[in-house]
Request: fold
Amino acid sequence: MRRTPASLVAGALVVALAWASSPVSPAIAADPSPGVADLTQDLNQILSDSRLTIARAGVVVKSAATGEEIYSVDSGKLMTPASNAKLFTSAAAAEVLGLDYRFTTSALAAGRTAGSFLRGDLVLRGTGDPTMLATDYDALAAAVAAKGVKVVTGRLVTDDSWFDSVRLGQDWAWDDETAYYAAQISALTASPDRDYDAGTVIVSVAADGDKVKVTTTPETDHLKIVNNATVGASTDVLIERQHGTNTVLITGTVASPYSEWVAVDDPTRYAASLFRKALTAHGVKVLGPTVSGAPEGASELAKHESMPLSELLVPFMKLSNNMHAEILTKAMGRKVAGQGTWAAGLKATSDFAKANGVQILNLRDGSGLSRRDGVTAGSIAQLLLSVRSKPWFTTWYNALPVAGDADRFTGGTLRNRMRGTPAAGNVHAKTGSLTSVTSLSGYVTSAEGEPLVFSIMLNQYLSGSPKDIEDKIAVRLAKFSRTAPDTAAQLRSDGPAATEGGDLECSWRKPVHC
Reply:
């Protein structure tokens, strides 16, 4: 049996008294007004869907203005949140790190310079920047060359000691090890494009005459490509890194171009390979090998700073980027406790949540990939209410996906959902998806202009994604009126809201970009 380190449990678990409100099924409206009673009846009807007969559902709706609980079903039951865990991680990061927080990546001289020679080692030091592109490593190399360095007599030393050496969440599924949405976490890493999927490479295939041509973005020798694919009448190709290696095996047939995002093994070495290649391109020759280390007393030659957290929140939350969540978790641990570890970072998140009234929270990672994460709908609603008073709230709120907005960096994982309904452009919420788990929590303005917070968590359903149930609830909340109740006929006439489908976050199912 796998043992759980006591320090991680102590850092990740916040359990106070049991949730005060008793679960009610079906929910009974406390407010006798016709509008609330009608809403309660409609939400109960929506949740009576046969797909939820053997499943678990936790739902809560509150007035953001007064904190009044308008609707609640099992809001105190512990549920698997999937990516709704990112609500806690992102809010804690905004509070602990601050919106002005930037990651730095530096090139340093561990030795003395004499003319065009650096007599010693060249150090590449990172603090976890998930936005580093090949072009950024190229700019860093160009800055080293601009200092007059042409020859490094020593080694290229990679210093990723800002974080610990634990690369994967201890509860993550083994078969996700090569998946780009579960990439290894390191203080030195690289992303292939401006979705900033740190620790990944885009592997592309295309028919080139009677052969299959393979390219990577960025160009890198960090991966070993074994191309067994053939040109065929249709594209039915598998691009997969072999577990525990950097060998990518390509099989199947290719007719039209196709790309796959692949997580690399050892992102530190991946970043170093990009930097060494860029150094060569700028006329800087490193005579020694690439090694790991954390030399002290090295002097800075060049530095790259990331965008501030206020901007990073957009790709992080809109596209539900798992690596951003884990990197920010370790960054919080480094700032609060001087330890770039999951344990320290999760304690920072839990302490923040507890200080803001959250009573039940058990986080094992920052992204929600772990099935041992446990959150209640009531805890999420409490967080959503509490952060409205924070000075960073507007920036954080705007980073949430917006229902029905087709732009990827506005609508995010909600861009194909609830279009043409009162929820479109209104609902700002975080999605969450794992197999047999879906969640949607955020903000909506009622038909009378009343701000509401809501959390919907559905667990352990067997077939047919119930995301349309989430959408129906959100649409009904957008139509909510205390004085002019909706009718069941109107509810039915809305029909099923558009959904993303599937068991993974929309943005996790690349390259489709659904």
Remarks:
- The radius of gyration is 25 Å.
- Residues 14 and 354 are 7 Å apart (CA to CA).
- The first strand starts at residue 13 and ends at 15.
